Write a sequence for this structure.
């Protein structure tokens, strides 16, 4: 998976490659899908949600350019796979999941993997997590448009990364806060489940 789907497609960060090698995707995909866990595709995890394909997880992680000291907010914990990868690359991950059953699943998965620098919350990700802000980076794992609250909860040079767009047509967008201005860059086309408000 790492060689064929990541390195051969342009993932170059040694830290990201190492983290993707250490986190075993089959433990997050679930027993029923374990035979498909390392294929180059997203997989269903219940409640209409998915675990992203390995390349997209690696690409989004690489775009954050984490050095190890950062506090990262993740919007959309899902089964905890992206969370686990991030936990190996930063100081602490704060992750919010709006679906209670997936929040519980992620908690179990991350505990099994002994990812101790992770704090999970069941709640509305569009509100962010002001109590623990500001964050050095915010990563969003559902497609839609950014909440105004997210930029408010970033540090001055913080990065917001999300799949932006409508329907199933999204593009990875990285926004870096720079005082009163925001620098914006666009990357890969992708497809994510929709970003929704509220708690389920």
């Amino acid at each position: 998976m790492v060689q064929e789907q990541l390195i051969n497609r342009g993932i170059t960060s040694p830290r990201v490659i190492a983290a993707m090698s250490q986190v075993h995707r089959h433990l997050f995909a679930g027993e029923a899908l374990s035979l498909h866990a390392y294929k180059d595709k997203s997989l269903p995890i219940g409640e209409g949600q998915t675990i992203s394909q390995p390349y997209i997880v690696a690409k989004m992680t690489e775009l954050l350019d984490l050095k190890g000291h950062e506090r990262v907010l993740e919007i959309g914990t899902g089964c905890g796979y992206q969370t686990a990868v991030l936990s190996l690359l930063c100081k602490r991950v704060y992750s919010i999941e709006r679906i209670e059953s997936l929040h519980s699943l992620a908690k179990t998965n991350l505990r099994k993997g002994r990812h101790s620098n992770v704090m999970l919350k069941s709640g509305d990700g569009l509100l962010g997590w002001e109590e623990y802000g500001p964050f050095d980076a915010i990563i969003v794992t559902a497609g839609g448009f950014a909440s105004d609250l997210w930029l408010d909860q970033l540090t001055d040079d913080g990065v917001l990364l999300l799949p932006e767009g409508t329907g199933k047509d999204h593009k990875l967008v990285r926004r870096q806060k720079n005082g009163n201005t925001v620098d914006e860059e666009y990357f890969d086309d992708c497809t994510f489940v929709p970003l929704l408000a509220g708690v389920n």
Summary: The longest strand covers residues 154-166. The radius of gyration is 15 Å. The chain is about 25% helix and 30% strand. The chain has one domain: 2-190.
